[in-house]
Amino acid sequence: MKIQIRLRAPNGQARLEIDDESAVQDLITLIKAETGLDTFSLKYGYPLKNLDTTQCATVKEMQLRGETIVVAPVERTPASADAKASTASASEPKPFIPKGIEPDETSLEWPEKGGYIVLRVMPDDNSCMFTAFGGAIGLENPSYKLRQQVAEYVLNHPEQYSKAILGDDPIRYTERMKQMDTWGGAIELSILSDIYSIEISSIDVKSLRVDRFGEGKENRVIILYSGIHYDRIAFAMDLSYPVEVDVTKWPTDDDDVLAKALDLAQRLQNLHYYTDTTDFVIKCEICNWIGQGTRDAAKHERETKHSQFGEMIIQ
């Protein structure tokens, strides 16, 4: 008997028809052909549960009963001495909503793709850039790993990353970058783009400028910069789904996703979801020094090696 199976995947929704006596592997083959994915997990229900296909010989034995199957991409990260990456999703707190912003203001419906472009807010722990990027490429506990890789890359490329470029002696720079309370920025994004051979598109909320690190690469991830903080841009098939089934990598010739991410950044700009770093008052959390803007903060960090700063709100 023929049965209809509804799919929800990163490339949209689809309906498959298959004989219920067909082997489960035949269904997997159909899903691969429909979604263009080679590796994925299958989920169903609410809240989402893993669909275990290993215990079933035929499609009939899966007892789907009209359930929609969610196809969640799984990244296969090659094991290497440099990366030592995990295929597990990033270990990070569940996304939270910024203060003063409503939940429905951090996402935009994308009807053509059957889902939403969403802001995944990173913890405010001085490692937000590493967490935003690392989670997008599927690393577990990304901050420590990426810091080590950046430091190693700098020392292995002394002509490219000299004191003039880094603003500090390379040895001191790498020692500081390995510390979990040191901020990451443009230099580190450029290095990570080279290490992982992926374009990193960083959208500035205030100006809506897109800075591309690693242009010419095949795939991209998108992060959002709000002055002193980085967040991740993702595609969610449903807002109720966990971050583990987010889509966070796209081909660099996919202009639609970048345009949609800019639409979301425009909404956040209207909500003033950014810090004006040119004149904001900043305080060192270590010695209580007070300065103005990122230039003062960078100078204070060079002089004292203090790297924990917070914005002071003047009433």
UniProtKB/TrEMBL annotation:
GO molecular function: any one?
Answer: cysteine-type deubiquitinase activity
**InterPro entries (UniProt xref):** OTU1_Ubl, OTU_dom, Papain-like_cys_pep_sf, Znf-C2H2_OTU1-like_C
Q: Name one GO biological process term.
A: protein deubiquitination
Which parts of this chain are annotated as the region Disordered? 80-104
Localization annotation: Cytoplasm
Q: So what does this thing catalyse?
A: Thiol-dependent hydrolysis of ester, thioester, amide, peptide and isopeptide bonds formed by the C-terminal Gly of ubiquitin (a 76-residue protein attached to proteins as an intracellular targeting signal)
The UniProt entry lists the main location of this chain as: cytoplasm
- Respond yes or no to whether keyword Cell membrane is given for this record: no
| Any one GO CC term of the record | nucleus
Keywords linked to the UniProt accession: Cytoplasm, Hydrolase, Metal-binding, Protease, Thiol protease, Ubl conjugation pathway, Zinc, Zinc-finger
Q: Does the keyword Zinc-finger apply?
A: yes
What spans are recorded as compositionally biased (Low complexity)? Answer: 80-91
- Ranges where the OTU domain occurs: 117-236
Pfam families attached to this UniProt entry: OTU (PF02338), OTU1_UBXL (PF21403), zf-C2H2_OTU1_C (PF24560)
Functional summary from the UniProt entry = Hydrolase that can remove conjugated ubiquitin from proteins and may therefore play an important regulatory role at the level of protein turnover by preventing degradation.
PANTHER family on file: HIV-INDUCED PROTEIN-7-LIKE PROTEASE (PTHR13312), UBIQUITIN THIOESTERASE OTU1 (PTHR13312:SF0)
- Provide the protein name: Ubiquitin thioesterase OTU
Q: Which organism is it from?
A: Lasiosphaeria ovina
